Amino acid sequence: MNQQVADPAARDTSPRHTHVLIIGSGFSGVGTAIRLSHEGYTDFLVLERGNDVGGTWRDNSYPGAACDVPSQLYSYSFALNPNWSRSFSKQPEIHRYIREVSERYGVRDKHIFGCEVTGARWNDAAGQWEVQTSQGLFIADVVVAGAGPLSDPNLPDIKGIHTYEGEIFHSARWDHTADLQGKRVAVIGTGASAMQIVPSIAPEVAHLDVYQRTAPWILPHFGRRYLLPERLAYKYIPGLQRLIRTGIYSMREGFVFTQAKYPVAARFFELVARVKMWLEIRDPELRRKATPNHRLGCKRMLISSDYYPTLARADVDLVTDGIKEIREHSIVTSDDTEREVDAIVLATGFNVSDSATYDLFTGRDGRTIAEIADIESVQAYKGTVLNNFPNLFVMLGPNSGTNYTSLIYVIESQINYIIDALATMKKQGLQSFEVRRDVQVEYNRQLRQQMASTVWLTGGCHSWFLDEKGTNTMLWPDFSFRLRRILRKFDLDAFDTTARANAPVAVAD
């Protein structure tokens, strides 16, 4: 009798249902998964386009990659890490921490790796999200968008960039097969990544050109390696690490005064930065090029102990003329100077205010987040939920970012809100919840009013904190503990809701 043999290449393409679907497996995704598991939820999945957890800290593996937030703040509150080797941790160590935590709390088996989300549409009739991916269709009652603001590299629109014949790559997609030894290299950009890349590669290349659009303010970097007695104390003295963490957190909150409350107070830090520059750059012309023309804090504050000394090297040039075009083997600036170059590193940051993530989600009225943002700057309620997008939580969403402390604190605050929302959903028998338009508008009116006097809008620069309309859609203009306070409880009265039908919905066990 003939027997049919299944095609091994064939796979089940039927939709897969889950109660909570998490997109992205960085600190947001892993943290949400761990908290769901802790609360007894079992019907959830994490979709990750990469082959491992880690998000930003998996992808950004360029030379010198490290965190500019103190290590003691850069961990989950429920999983403090006594094993940090330095006061400011480097990328491999942070990535290793996320992997270890995901394994310790048993959420890796909830991940589907190599699964890229290509679109998500709200089905109003069913009261569910339909999520298209590279591995088929997923149906979810609730979606947590945890891809984060630093997941979509910004590739500059420069004439001829696609015809360049040398090695070229973005800092977040570093080509580790590229050999820069003894080559003429150009780094485009002078932001946080460039602060770390430029000093790291300068000693090995033949010549380095650093292309600067806007000079950044750079404060001293006090990073150091922890001594063995310190590491042992953090590991074996109960409460010590949490006490140190609280102290560092409190000090970092002080930057709110210089950026949001009383920007004039930043003059002191500007003086510190100017003295630092004067000590580390002796050439008056180079110092002139490296001097910012905006207020400190207007753009992201940077820290470095070796960037200025690297610029002062004889084999490094700081180029401040705009780039006119890129040719097959060279870069031409606006003054028609042509510089030969063997490799180009694009340290040009990420698409933040116009993130590609915003194109993925289609809401109740058939418009995407990006389409709505084209008309009015992207808005959210409490940086976490959006009108027209029921049952969707956006991690590190509009105006939830901080420019002075660890975003993990914000992430955990948002997770508190999500968990309480899910509990409310179960208790009230809800199918869907959507923040009311009037509530979101009033929230953002007050937020913009508070934002008006901050250095981000008055400091004389145009940073990636601002969208094309000049609206700061990124930062929270207050102390981070106040953001946590408003995210402590899910405020059901701010939402329109629909009741769940008789069909069963997976909930906490």
Short description:
By secondary structure, the chain is an alpha/beta fold. It is 30% helix and 18% strand. It has 2 domains: 16-152 and 351-499, 3-Layer(bba) Sandwich (FAD/NAD(P)-binding domain); 161-225 and 231-346, FAD/NAD(P)-binding domain, CATH 3.50.50.60.
Characterization of this structure:
With 509 residues, the protein is an alpha/beta fold. The chain folds into 2 domains: 16-152 and 351-499, FAD/NAD(P)-binding domain; 161-225 and 231-346, FAD/NAD(P)-binding domain. It is 30% helix and 18% strand. The protein has helices at 27-38, 56-59, 91-104, 192-201, 228-236, 240-253, 255-261, 267-280, 284-290, 307-311, 369-375, 407-428, 437-451, 455-458, 480-486; strands spanning 16-23, 44-48, 111-113, 117-123, 128-133, 136-145, 167-170, 184-188, 207-211, 218-219, 302-303, 316-319, 323-326, 330-333, 338-340, 343-346, 361-362, 392-394, 430-435, 495-499. The strands form 5 sheets. Strands 1, 2, 3, 4, 5, 6, 17 and 18 form an 8-stranded mixed beta sheet that branches. A 5-stranded parallel beta sheet has the order 7-16-8-9-12. A hairpin with a 4-residue loop joins strand 4 and strand 5 (128-133). The chain starts with 15 loop residues before the first strand and ends in a 10-residue tail after the last strand. 43% of the residues are buried. Mean pLDDT is 93; it is low at 1-10 and 503-509.
